[in-house]
Design brief:
Elements: E1 14-18, H1 23-34, E2 38-43, E3 53-55, H2 61-69, E4 80-83, H3 95-115, E5 120-126, H4 154-172, E6 177-183, E7 186-187, E8 213-214, H5 215-227, E9 232-238, H6 249-256, H7 276-282
Parallel strand pairs: 1-2, 1-4, 2-3, 4-5, 5-6, 6-9, 7-8
Helix pairs in contact: 1-5, 2-3, 3-4
Length: 294
């Protein structure tokens, strides 16, 4: 299916954000609010501003559908959902606990959204679907959304199942949009002080091809995915334009992946996680680089 070029709605949205207390979620709330959208926080951690959110356990379907349908003194209905809540990485809990928590919460959010009439869903997928930690070489560089998902952990397996579920839900439901954003390693400004140390040992960051996403640019991607006028399912790699390294990208690729085809001429510090699709269709345009802070 050919996806439309970038076309965005301008009407402010009433948006629920799950996982809003996280590194990315808090930036998403700030960004959406700054751009005139009404945000309702749904999280197990109470928001700093209690007037905009409520405590919800998304592994409980009753709570989830009730929260999306309406909450006294918070909202009487929503236009969209941004689902970020999850155990955010492999190994933070047992594999079974990771699967149960993340898969159940996502099914509940998707299913509850449909039950209450929400047709605009953006969720956090993951760069891990590209084959991270790349113990098996990628098929080509830079990597993008065009080859089949390659989950290598229970965490990434769940992300793959979430995307698969989204594909079927949009097939069942005319007018539904579900966008999966495959976020790279999310960074705060204070994280950038450590970046120059990576040059001494490139292998310490080759697990995700030396990529990252500034949390503020991740929030921009969420906003643009929400306002993108599209029906159906789509996935996007969300990474910054540059790598975490001072060494050239071509040098890093040649040393670590000598047998992998490189499909384009690489910029000096160009990210090997391609954000070209997000730029083309969402109008995504990263504005923040670690090089501006170190």
């Amino acid at each position: 299916m050919t996806l439309p070029t970038t076309n965005h709605a301008t009407t402010p949205l009433r948006v629920a954000v799950t996982g809003a207390s996280g590194k990315l979620g808090s930036a998403v709330v700030e960004d959406l609010t700054a751009h005139g959208h009404q945000v309702v926080v749904l999280d197990q951690t109470p928001p700093e501003d209690p007037s905009i959110g409520s405590r919800v356990d998304l592994t409980d379907y009753g709570q989830t559908v009730d929260a999306l349908g309406g909450i006294d003194d918070r909202h009487g209905g929503l236009d969209a959902v941004v689902h970020l809540a999850a155990l955010p990485a492999p190994g933070l809990a047992t594999d079974v606990a990771t699967f149960e928590n993340n898969m159940l919460a996502t099914y509940h959010v998707f299913h509850a959204a449909l039950r209450v009439g929400i047709r605009n869903i953006v969720h956090a997928s993951s760069e891990t679907l590209l084959g991270i930690p790349f113990e098996q070489d990628p098929p080509y560089l830079p990597v993008d959304e065009d080859y089949p998902a390659r989950p290598e952990s229970t965490y990434s397996l769940v992300k793959h199942l979430e995307e698969t579920m989204a594909e079927q839900l949009v097939r069942w439901t005319p007018g539904l949009k579900i966008v999966g954003l495959r976020f790279s390693n999310v960074m705060r400004v204070e994280d950038y002080a450590q970046f120059p140390e990576f040059d001494a040992d490139p292998a310490s960051r080759d697990w995700n091809l030396w990529a990252y996403i500034d949390r503020r640019d991740g929030a921009q991607a969420v906003r643009k995915a929400l306002t993108w006028q599209h029906h159906g399912h789509a996935t996007f790699v969300i990474a910054n334009d540059d790598s975490v390294m001072s060494r050239s990208t071509a040098e890093l690729a040649a040393a670590r992946f000598p047998d992998v085809p490189v499909t384009k001429e690489l910029g000096e510090h160009e990210s090997l996680l391609s954000n070209a699709k997000a730029k083309r269709l969402l109008g995504f345009a990263p504005e923040h680089s670690w090089r501006d802070h170190v």
